Amino acid sequence: MASNQELLDGNEYISAREEALFARDVDGQLIRRADASLTDLELDVRITIDGQAIVVKKAVPLRNSQGVVLVNDRGEVIPRPTTIYDAVTRMYVRSVEDINPVPILCHREHLQPVGVCRVCMVEIQEQRKSGRVKKDLVSACTYHVKEGMVITTLASQENPKTVEVLKDSVGVIVELLASEHLSQQDRENLVNAPKRYEPNELKKLVHRFVPNPTQLRYPPSELAGKRGLDSSSEIISVDHDACILCQRCTRACNEIKHNDVMARDGKGYPTKIAFDTNLPMLESSCVSCGECVISCPTDALQFRPLVIEKQIAKLSDDLHLTQSKSSKNSTEVLSPEQMLDIPIFNGIPYKFLQFNGGACVRRVLQPGDVLCKEGEYGSTAFLIQRGKFEIQISRSRSKAAKKPTERKGFFNRIFSSSSTGIATLATGSDHSNTNQETRFFRGPEDVILGEMACLNRSPRSATVVAVEESEVIEIGSNVLYMLQRNSASLKLLNEAYRRHALNSNLSRTPLCRSLSVAELDRLAQGVELISVEPGQPIFKEGEIGDEVYMIRLGYVKFSRMQGMRDQVITYMGPPNIEGEIGVFGEVAVLSKLYESELADELQALNFPAGVRTSSCTALDHVELVRIQGTLIRELTETNSEFRKTLLDRAESLLRRDAKREVSESTFKANFVAQGLYNAQSLLVLDLESCTRCDECSKACADAHEGQTRLVRDGLRFENFLVATSCRSCTDPYCLVGCPVNAIFREGDKEIVIEDHCIGCGQCATNCPYGNITMYGHQDGYRLEGNQKVPVVRQRATTCDQCKSIGGTPRCVYACPHEAAFRMSGEQLTTVVSERTTS
Amino acid sequence: MLLARKMHLHYGPIALASLLILGGGLWQYSLGTNEDPASGSSPAGLVVGSIAAGIILFELLLWPRKRLRKYKLGRTKFWVAYHLWLGLACGPLAFIHSGFRFGGTFTTFLMALLVLVLASGVFGWVMQVFIPRWMLGNLPQETIPSQIDDVSLLSALENRQMLTVTLGPKPPNTGKLVVLDDQLDALKSGRSLPSMTLDPTTPAIQKSKAIVVGALQRRDPQRVSFGQELADDLNASDRSEIWKQYTLVVEPFLLRNVISKSTQVASRSPIRNLQGAQEWFKNLQTSCSDSANPILIALQSTVEQRLQFDAQRMAHAWLHRWIAFHAGISVMLGVLLLVHIIQSLRYM
Ligand code: HEM
Ligand code: SF4
Ligand code: SF4
Ligand code: FES
């Protein structure tokens, strides 16, 4: 049989017939499907969509919900076959305003397609192995593209007949769903067009495909209207009758949030979505993160009014705050409806905006108004609507000099050697460089400002001042995450990120001081942005290296084999952190380019030119700018100043490497393994003087409603105990993924958790040091008389360095001995090494 | 040296102040000797006495200061520093005040009490300087004292899991466990146990997140699951021998104080001290095949941890028990001092 042959043939994807008829497991996933291979990523497939020829790749990289390319253990990109939906999106969706002609219901770009609703039907014509051309209706979200395939969608102009067929078949499906899952009332309302921001996608489809929603051809089943409600949770209500079993919620819960709470339960008509073993939502292990509600295309999962009210209360608080901060500028909190009227927010679910009241603020600035200040922490980004801003990046960061490390001297040397020789740069129309600052302008074409601080939780890298009357929309990080889920807005943002990252990274690092604006531009054009996941190698010791890297986000470690052990030598963070240079990998490149200049140093290390002297591995999620060696050569050949800076650095790096001793390495290894490089304020207890009296934790409990936020236990670093208490990390992992933006950092270094935390525990899971504790009602309800009233089950608490009670951490204050201290990881190393030498 | 490193920086001025007060007292006293024999009621004696009484009052205030942790009443470590040095100065001052005599029964008693307070204070100070250093060197596994039993319970649970994974379920004729699995679970209620994993570089079992607070989640994915390769090489007699020894000796020892039945067994246990434990495990190792070694090493490390906990309890007692005595008699001293003051004022 031909189809069997196809199944056995590893390079062929399963055909429509087999896909439709069998080979699905209980979850509706295909049991057998040939995986895409790495070569498919480069393989062109020519197809025709609605009469237009288009070339797509046979496979695309698998991405996570944030559009980040995923890689396997070997560091290779994981390919996934390109679907028809992908191809149609490429052709039709060029900007955020464009609408994909293929309707989808069970599919979303950030989810794995399951193909259960079939509303994404398109017609395909493809040539089978036998040579016959076959026509078929297939689901665009799951069907893979094939060479020579001809696709007709609802937008086709030349094929009106097929369009009618498609409309009919989608119409039938939608009508069936409407009759079973929409109430009489809902259907009557649908005589009028639903609003633009209508969260119920089924209603929108009914309006589009069903001519007369009040008179349906198909009667509902006997079960319709009797499937019941689940209102046990305070946050989410479940209406099983409205549920169309599209599985978007289950995938969101399991694949996006990895909470693994939801699944389908039962077979046939009585099938329902279920929590754990079909428990009421409140009793299940649900953490109320809200991801399922945001994903649900119907009214089956909704936020309860109380939650929305709470969000609105927060909203007005926020408004109050921002207004008092900057009374000159006008500030307005945007409602979900207002936001959805702005094109870039097109892809964001309405319910998400409800859940995140106050997440978006419109600000109008007058000339001279400061939007944000360099060095401050901020958890928001600004979408530029109109106007013009000046970006001011100071070149020498005064604080950098205070950093108490051995590396400081070294950096300073580079600073001073290069800053004396800065060429005064050409002051083009929108660029100017002085010894102190780099200035340039940004406008609406730049889309977004301040995204680095928002996404990377790092201090603002520039001061932004309005030059004329300007308008921005300030968004929180979770709104930005949502924007990144949508391929159209992600594309827009990625381009902006790229420009900005290069602008601020390249002009910040002392190494590029001597480059002119034209040279910087040349550099910026020739680089790539890559991201690396924790634990993955960036390069290995002994490899030939021809790339230089610059860190945008995250930390990397360098290690070298010493005997059988991989010894950590040092680590590095992005250059926007005080005193960091953020550039690595240049030694191999330079030693190849200028072998004779570096001969002595290379010999001392016994390393051949052009070879990596150490391995580099990502410590967390790392984003890098990769610069090819050829580009470096080009620049060093024309700019002798640049060449000298680089050579000086390579020389001293090689010298330092040759000197390094093993004992220091173990010390560094511990330092890196415990993540201390990331810590700005550790609670460390000197175990030589600590009498274990527990006054510190008692003081913490006394100061914070009887619940201690520190635990006097943890890992040891030399003679110090690094107690379990928030470290105010430079890159706080805890801030990633809070569904309601309750945890943040603004202004200072402290991490603060606000009252509207819903207790999902995401932050506690994210903190690698166990420093966030969930306190609360385990039962999930409170008794009011005999009534059980659902309440938020738990709340996250973390140490805010006593910021909420006027500063001065009480743990240190209450210690009766010379034992408790707050200090940064770097300071701790200084203290420890002072002790070992004295 | 009694002082911890760098302590002289903030102790120096305080000690100096105390010495000055003391010197002042002596000078006052030397003034007094010329006219009439110095005593408490001479002007010099009165001044010195008042200072000493003031100091004692201040010393007593440490108690409320330490209870009012929530408020910013000055760093506690400075309070304690003053406490130590002024306290030391107050002994000689009192003696000067009395004109180097003991006086009547009451004042003698008062003097004795003061000496006791001082002695206990000095004793405690010495303890506080030496014991933490000893603990630092000798008890790397120490935990929060109140958590000792909890942690032991968890190690027992983990051991059982580890043995079940590596040796298979407990064979029937290997003795009776002190508590059943589900009871143990109930004891530990509410906490989920992570699956067993082993760090490939060390034979010791990775402690679960439930035990070690502040442990780092390993970010590199090099975890090796423990058991499979091991289980294949072990023979039946190893399996039942290890289970038996675990049931009869190791677990009762770990669960001592947690479960009363087990406490009785443990008081005669061959592994109740480090030497005994090491010997006992060595014997067990020789009687089992080599492939059982990693399991025995893991068990031994839990026993050694428990032994460290015992030592920690002792150390903790030495560190803190004396405070009750010191504070108790100092309150008594305070009350009697008040009586002494009222009495003296009346008869002046
Ligand atoms: C007049 C004499 C003294 C009085 C009335 C006095 C009273 C007290 C009181 C009430 C406490 C508080 C106990 C608690 O934390 O609950 C205390 C603690 C303490 N005292 Fe004294 N004391 C006196 C002299 C001394 C002297 C001379 C020394 C040592 C040189 C000393 C050393 C200490 C120490 C080390 C503590 C414990 C501090 C801590 O770890 O928190 N005391 N004393
Ligand atoms: S603060 Fe933490 S626990 Fe609270 S909602 Fe945000 S992520 Fe969840
Ligand atoms: S208060 Fe100071 S001495 Fe007491 S346990 Fe904490 S650090 Fe140790
Ligand atoms: S959207 Fe493609 S099958 Fe549901």
Quickly list its features.
heterodimer; A: alpha+beta; 30% helix; globular; B: 348 residues; mainly alpha; two-stranded antiparallel ribbon; 11 helices; 2 strands; disordered N terminus; binds protoporphyrin IX containing FE; binds iron/sulfur cluster; binds FE2/S2 (inorganic) cluster
Number of strands of chain A: 40
Mean pLDDT of chain A: 80
Mean pLDDT of chain B: 77
Number of strands of chain B: 2
Task: List low-pLDDT spans of chain B.
Answer: 1-5, 189-229
N to C succession of SSEs of chain B: HHHHHHEEHHHHH
Strand order across the biggest sheet of chain B?
Answer: 1-2
Distance between the termini of chain B: 45 Å
Radius of gyration of chain B: 30 Å
Largest sheet of chain B: 2 strands, antiparallel
Strand fraction of chain A equals: 15-25%
Taken from the alpha-carbon principal axes, the silhouette of chain A is: globular
Percentage of residues in DSSP E strands of chain B = under 5%
User: Main β-sheet of chain A, in a few words?
Assistant: 5 strands, mixed
Helix content of chain B: 55-70%
Fraction of residues of chain A in helices? 25-40%
Uncertain ranges of chain A:
1-18, 397-435
Structural class of chain A: alpha+beta
Structural class of chain B: mainly alpha
Shape of chain B: elongated
Number of helices of chain A: 25
Architecture overview:
The complex is a heterodimer of chains A (838) and B (348). Chain A has 838 residues and is an alpha+beta fold. Helix content of chain A is 30%, strand content 22%. Chain A has a five-stranded mixed β-sheet with strand order 2-1-7-5-6, with helices on both faces. A five-stranded antiparallel β-sheet of chain A has the order 13-14-22-16-20. Chain B is elongated. The longest helix of chain B is centred in the C-terminal third of the chain and has 54 residues. The relative contact order of chain B is 0.11. At the A-B interface, helix 22, strand 32, strand 33 and helix 24 of A face helix 3, helix 4 and helix 11 of B. One iron/sulfur cluster binds next to helix 22 of chain A.
